[in-house]
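Lab notebook, bench 4. Still working through the backlog of constructs that have no structural model yet. Next entry is a single chain of 260 residues. Request: give me the structure tokens for it.
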Amino acid sequence: MSDTVLADLVQGLAAGKVRLVDLTETLRPEYPTIQLPPEFGQAWGFSKETISHYDDKGPGWSWSNFSMSEHTGTHLDAPAHWVTGKDLPGGTVDTMPLQQMIAPVCVIDCSAQVAADKGFILTKSFLLDWEKSHGRIPAGSWVFLRSDWRKVADPDNYTNMQADGAHSPGPDKEAVLWMIEERDVLGFGTECVGTDAGQAFAMDPAYPCHHFMHGNGRLGLQCMTNLDLLPATGAVVISTPLKIIDGSGSPLRVVALVAG
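Model written out:
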């Protein structure tokens, strides 16, 4: 590789020919985490405690302790997050290949469908129709479901929990298997709290995106934002998780590079 490739990137960023789009929610106590039935263990939300703030506990410095789950806020699911991927090599965030942290992305705009039905299910036929307009999904790409969830969800009920469970968008089994087997994607991402649909617990198998993506060594990204600022194709996503020993996932800063 010529050293001009990296120089061109730096110059492009400086000149505004390549722009950066932040796809990350701010970590804050009020941002929701997924809630499981009470018989299961629960993920911690984000909590922050001041150690010192230019005071008698530390006159010249400010710092804090914080706690949260590996799967809080904008975060990555590694293969080891799901039982189907528990034995795969490179399946934890400290062992996953670095090459997976930078990849192109295809953004599937489902915002109109989600506005009409918050429990919208992404199907293979919807993806095939998308390809008719935007071209084939390249191998090694992320596929992101754009829902504009922050705009349509109730801030006081962000997972859209109803009497029969959550109602949020996600793919069905056929779509997930097609993305893996026919398009060899790197992984699947959403703006919702989870890559599976809210009603995916009732699918067969339950939570097909987790079941098949992670069982095949693929990744998940969720709780993103600003997907409406990305083009359908052409952007590149940088998603570098914390190097947590044996980590099943990690909060992270997700950034997209967009030309123009």
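Notes after review: The first strand starts at residue 18 and ends at 22. The chain is about 20% helix and 25% strand. Flag for follow-up if needed.
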